[in-house]
Amino acid sequence: MTIDLRQQIIRARHAFDRQDYAAALADFQEVLARNPRFADIRQLTGLCLSFLGHAEAALAEFDHAIALNPGYIEAYINRAITLNELGRFEEARESFAQAAALETESKGPYPSTASARIANAHASLGDLYRESNVLEEAVRQYKRALEIRDHFHDIRLRLAQVLLQLDQPVEAAAELRKVLEVNPRFYAARIDLGLALFRIGDHEAARREWEVVHEQEPNNGQVRAYISMLERQS
Q: In this structure, which of 26, 62, 98, 174 has its CB flanked by the most CB atoms within 10 Å?
Protein backbone atom coordinates (compact mmCIF):
# COMPACT_ATOMS: atom_id res chain seq x y z
CA MET A 1 0.00 0.00 0.00
CA THR A 2 1.45 3.37 -1.00
CA ILE A 3 1.57 6.30 1.41
CA ASP A 4 -0.92 8.34 -0.63
CA LEU A 5 -3.36 5.41 -0.69
CA ARG A 6 -3.05 5.02 3.06
CA GLN A 7 -3.71 8.76 3.52
CA GLN A 8 -6.80 8.52 1.35
CA ILE A 9 -8.10 5.65 3.49
CA ILE A 10 -7.51 7.71 6.65
CA ARG A 11 -9.34 10.67 5.10
CA ALA A 12 -12.25 8.44 4.11
CA ARG A 13 -12.48 6.92 7.59
CA HIS A 14 -12.53 10.38 9.16
CA ALA A 15 -15.35 11.41 6.81
CA PHE A 16 -17.22 8.22 7.73
CA ASP A 17 -16.78 8.90 11.45
CA ARG A 18 -18.30 12.36 11.09
CA GLN A 19 -21.17 10.82 9.05
CA ASP A 20 -20.21 12.54 5.80
CA TYR A 21 -21.04 9.38 3.88
CA ALA A 22 -20.94 10.93 0.42
CA ALA A 23 -17.37 12.17 0.90
CA ALA A 24 -16.33 8.88 2.49
CA LEU A 25 -17.88 6.91 -0.35
CA ALA A 26 -16.03 8.90 -3.01
CA ASP A 27 -12.69 8.21 -1.33
CA PHE A 28 -13.44 4.56 -0.60
CA GLN A 29 -14.43 3.97 -4.22
CA GLU A 30 -11.19 5.56 -5.44
CA VAL A 31 -9.24 3.28 -3.10
CA LEU A 32 -11.07 0.22 -4.45
CA ALA A 33 -10.43 1.30 -8.02
CA ARG A 34 -6.71 1.09 -7.23
CA ASN A 35 -6.86 -1.98 -4.98
CA PRO A 36 -10.15 -3.93 -4.99
CA ARG A 37 -8.92 -6.56 -2.50
CA PHE A 38 -9.48 -4.71 0.79
CA ALA A 39 -12.33 -6.48 2.58
CA ASP A 40 -12.64 -3.80 5.25
CA ILE A 41 -12.89 -1.04 2.63
CA ARG A 42 -15.56 -3.05 0.78
CA GLN A 43 -17.49 -3.31 4.05
CA LEU A 44 -17.25 0.43 4.72
CA THR A 45 -18.20 1.24 1.13
CA GLY A 46 -21.27 -0.92 1.58
CA LEU A 47 -22.22 0.95 4.74
CA CYS A 48 -21.86 4.31 2.99
CA LEU A 49 -24.06 3.13 0.15
CA SER A 50 -26.62 1.78 2.61
CA PHE A 51 -26.77 5.04 4.57
CA LEU A 52 -27.17 6.93 1.29
CA GLY A 53 -30.12 4.76 0.29
CA HIS A 54 -28.47 2.51 -2.30
CA ALA A 55 -29.35 -0.89 -0.87
CA GLU A 56 -28.63 -3.04 -3.92
CA ALA A 57 -25.19 -1.49 -4.43
CA ALA A 58 -24.50 -1.85 -0.69
CA LEU A 59 -25.41 -5.54 -0.84
CA ALA A 60 -22.94 -6.06 -3.68
CA GLU A 61 -20.15 -4.53 -1.58
CA PHE A 62 -20.97 -6.69 1.44
CA ASP A 63 -20.89 -9.74 -0.84
CA HIS A 64 -17.47 -8.65 -2.15
CA ALA A 65 -16.20 -8.25 1.42
CA ILE A 66 -17.39 -11.76 2.34
CA ALA A 67 -15.83 -13.23 -0.80
CA LEU A 68 -12.51 -11.72 0.25
CA ASN A 69 -12.94 -12.62 3.92
CA PRO A 70 -15.43 -15.46 4.55
CA GLY A 71 -15.18 -14.89 8.31
CA TYR A 72 -16.21 -11.25 8.25
CA ILE A 73 -19.03 -11.25 10.82
CA GLU A 74 -19.83 -7.54 10.47
CA ALA A 75 -20.26 -7.92 6.71
CA TYR A 76 -22.72 -10.80 7.25
CA ILE A 77 -24.69 -8.73 9.74
CA ASN A 78 -24.85 -5.68 7.48
CA ARG A 79 -25.71 -7.92 4.55
CA ALA A 80 -28.61 -9.33 6.56
CA ILE A 81 -29.86 -5.86 7.50
CA THR A 82 -29.73 -4.79 3.86
CA LEU A 83 -31.54 -7.92 2.71
CA ASN A 84 -34.28 -7.15 5.23
CA GLU A 85 -34.58 -3.65 3.79
CA LEU A 86 -35.01 -5.21 0.35
CA GLY A 87 -37.71 -7.57 1.60
CA ARG A 88 -35.55 -10.67 1.08
CA PHE A 89 -36.32 -12.03 4.53
CA GLU A 90 -35.26 -15.67 4.11
CA GLU A 91 -31.85 -14.65 2.77
CA ALA A 92 -31.55 -12.18 5.64
CA ARG A 93 -32.23 -14.94 8.20
CA GLU A 94 -29.56 -17.09 6.57
CA SER A 95 -27.04 -14.26 6.72
CA PHE A 96 -27.82 -13.57 10.38
CA ALA A 97 -27.44 -17.31 11.07
CA GLN A 98 -24.04 -17.33 9.39
CA ALA A 99 -22.94 -14.38 11.52
CA ALA A 100 -24.15 -16.18 14.65
CA ALA A 101 -22.29 -19.35 13.66
CA LEU A 102 -19.08 -17.42 13.14
CA GLU A 103 -19.57 -15.69 16.48
CA THR A 104 -19.87 -19.10 18.16
CA GLU A 105 -16.74 -20.35 16.40
CA SER A 106 -14.72 -17.32 17.47
CA LYS A 107 -11.56 -18.25 19.34
CA GLY A 108 -9.47 -16.33 21.80
CA PRO A 109 -10.05 -14.15 24.86
CA TYR A 110 -12.01 -11.37 23.11
CA PRO A 111 -15.66 -11.08 22.08
CA SER A 112 -16.00 -11.68 18.37
CA THR A 113 -16.79 -8.11 17.30
CA ALA A 114 -13.98 -6.77 19.48
CA SER A 115 -11.52 -9.31 18.13
CA ALA A 116 -12.28 -8.21 14.57
CA ARG A 117 -11.49 -4.61 15.46
CA ILE A 118 -8.31 -5.59 17.30
CA ALA A 119 -7.15 -7.75 14.40
CA ASN A 120 -7.78 -4.93 11.93
CA ALA A 121 -5.91 -2.50 14.20
CA HIS A 122 -2.86 -4.79 14.18
CA ALA A 123 -3.18 -5.04 10.39
CA SER A 124 -3.33 -1.25 10.05
CA LEU A 125 -0.21 -0.95 12.17
CA GLY A 126 1.43 -3.56 9.96
CA ASP A 127 0.53 -1.43 6.94
CA LEU A 128 2.24 1.58 8.50
CA TYR A 129 5.40 -0.41 9.23
CA ARG A 130 5.32 -1.75 5.68
CA GLU A 131 5.08 1.77 4.25
CA SER A 132 8.03 2.76 6.44
CA ASN A 133 9.99 -0.28 5.17
CA VAL A 134 10.22 -1.76 8.66
CA LEU A 135 9.25 -5.11 7.21
CA GLU A 136 10.09 -7.44 10.09
CA GLU A 137 7.79 -5.46 12.39
CA ALA A 138 5.09 -5.45 9.70
CA VAL A 139 5.29 -9.26 9.66
CA ARG A 140 4.93 -9.37 13.45
CA GLN A 141 1.82 -7.17 13.36
CA TYR A 142 0.16 -9.15 10.57
CA LYS A 143 0.88 -12.39 12.40
CA ARG A 144 -0.57 -10.93 15.59
CA ALA A 145 -3.72 -10.01 13.67
CA LEU A 146 -3.99 -13.54 12.32
CA GLU A 147 -3.51 -15.04 15.77
CA ILE A 148 -6.69 -13.21 16.74
CA ARG A 149 -8.58 -13.75 13.46
CA ASP A 150 -6.90 -16.49 11.44
CA HIS A 151 -9.59 -16.41 8.73
CA PHE A 152 -8.98 -12.76 7.77
CA HIS A 153 -7.38 -13.75 4.49
CA ASP A 154 -6.95 -10.24 3.14
CA ILE A 155 -4.53 -9.75 6.04
CA ARG A 156 -2.86 -13.08 5.28
CA LEU A 157 -2.30 -11.86 1.70
CA ARG A 158 -0.56 -8.75 3.02
CA LEU A 159 1.62 -10.93 5.26
CA ALA A 160 2.63 -13.05 2.27
CA GLN A 161 3.48 -9.98 0.21
CA VAL A 162 5.81 -8.70 2.92
CA LEU A 163 7.42 -12.13 3.22
CA LEU A 164 8.12 -11.91 -0.52
CA GLN A 165 9.68 -8.49 0.03
CA LEU A 166 11.89 -10.10 2.68
CA ASP A 167 12.92 -12.79 0.17
CA GLN A 168 11.13 -15.55 2.06
CA PRO A 169 9.20 -17.19 -0.82
CA VAL A 170 8.73 -20.57 0.90
CA GLU A 171 7.01 -18.93 3.87
CA ALA A 172 5.01 -16.68 1.55
CA ALA A 173 3.83 -19.65 -0.52
CA ALA A 174 2.61 -21.42 2.62
CA GLU A 175 0.50 -18.43 3.62
CA LEU A 176 -0.91 -17.98 0.11
CA ARG A 177 -1.92 -21.63 -0.08
CA LYS A 178 -3.94 -21.16 3.11
CA VAL A 179 -5.81 -18.31 1.43
CA LEU A 180 -6.51 -20.32 -1.72
CA GLU A 181 -7.71 -23.36 0.21
CA VAL A 182 -10.57 -21.21 1.45
CA ASN A 183 -11.10 -19.02 -1.61
CA PRO A 184 -9.67 -20.45 -4.86
CA ARG A 185 -10.94 -17.40 -6.75
CA PHE A 186 -8.82 -14.98 -4.73
CA TYR A 187 -6.73 -14.23 -7.81
CA ALA A 188 -4.45 -11.67 -6.18
CA ALA A 189 -3.27 -14.47 -3.88
CA ARG A 190 -2.86 -16.85 -6.81
CA ILE A 191 -0.75 -14.33 -8.72
CA ASP A 192 1.51 -13.87 -5.71
CA LEU A 193 1.71 -17.64 -5.20
CA GLY A 194 3.00 -17.91 -8.76
CA LEU A 195 5.61 -15.29 -7.96
CA ALA A 196 6.65 -17.13 -4.78
CA LEU A 197 6.97 -20.40 -6.72
CA PHE A 198 8.98 -18.66 -9.42
CA ARG A 199 11.41 -17.34 -6.79
CA ILE A 200 11.67 -20.80 -5.26
CA GLY A 201 12.65 -22.04 -8.74
CA ASP A 202 9.54 -24.06 -9.61
CA HIS A 203 8.75 -22.29 -12.86
CA GLU A 204 6.23 -24.84 -14.09
CA ALA A 205 4.20 -24.57 -10.91
CA ALA A 206 4.34 -20.78 -11.22
CA ARG A 207 3.06 -21.02 -14.78
CA ARG A 208 0.14 -23.20 -13.66
CA GLU A 209 -0.95 -20.64 -11.09
CA TRP A 210 -0.70 -17.73 -13.53
CA GLU A 211 -2.53 -19.63 -16.26
CA VAL A 212 -5.46 -20.25 -13.90
CA VAL A 213 -5.78 -16.49 -13.47
CA HIS A 214 -5.23 -15.84 -17.18
CA GLU A 215 -8.13 -18.15 -18.06
CA GLN A 216 -10.47 -16.13 -15.85
CA GLU A 217 -8.96 -12.67 -16.39
CA PRO A 218 -7.42 -12.68 -19.89
CA ASN A 219 -6.91 -8.90 -19.78
CA ASN A 220 -4.87 -9.00 -16.58
CA GLY A 221 -1.67 -7.27 -17.69
CA GLN A 222 0.35 -8.41 -14.70
CA VAL A 223 -0.34 -12.07 -15.41
CA ARG A 224 0.37 -11.65 -19.13
CA ALA A 225 3.71 -10.08 -18.28
CA TYR A 226 4.65 -12.93 -15.94
CA ILE A 227 3.73 -15.60 -18.50
CA SER A 228 5.67 -13.75 -21.21
CA MET A 229 8.68 -13.63 -18.88
CA LEU A 230 8.53 -17.41 -18.53
CA GLU A 231 8.23 -17.88 -22.27
CA ARG A 232 11.30 -15.73 -22.89
CA GLN A 233 13.28 -17.85 -20.43
CA SER A 234 12.25 -21.18 -21.97
A: 62
- pLDDT above 70: residue 112: no
Report whether 131 contacts 3 (CB < 8 A).
yes
Residue ending a domain, choose from 77, 105, 133:
105
- C-alpha angle 110/115/118, rounded to 5°? 120
Amino acid at site 129:
Y
**CATH code of 162's domain:** 1.25.40.10
pLDDT (average), residues 107-116: 61
- Distance, in Å, from the CA atom of 187 to the CA atom of 192, rounded to the nearest integer, reads 9
Distance CA 205, CA 192 (A): 12
- From first CA to last CA, the distance across the chain in angstroms is 33
Question: Could you give the C-alpha distances from 181 to 98, 151, 186, 208, 223, in angstroms and in order?
Answer: 20, 11, 10, 16, 21
Cα separation, 215 vs 204, in Å, equals 16
Reported as a pLDDT band with limits 50, 70 and 90, residue 161 is very high
Burial pattern 144-171, b for ≥16 Cβ within 10 A else e, equals bbbebbebbbbbbbbbbbbbbeeebbee
Tell me which residue range forms the domain holding 97.
Answer: 3-105
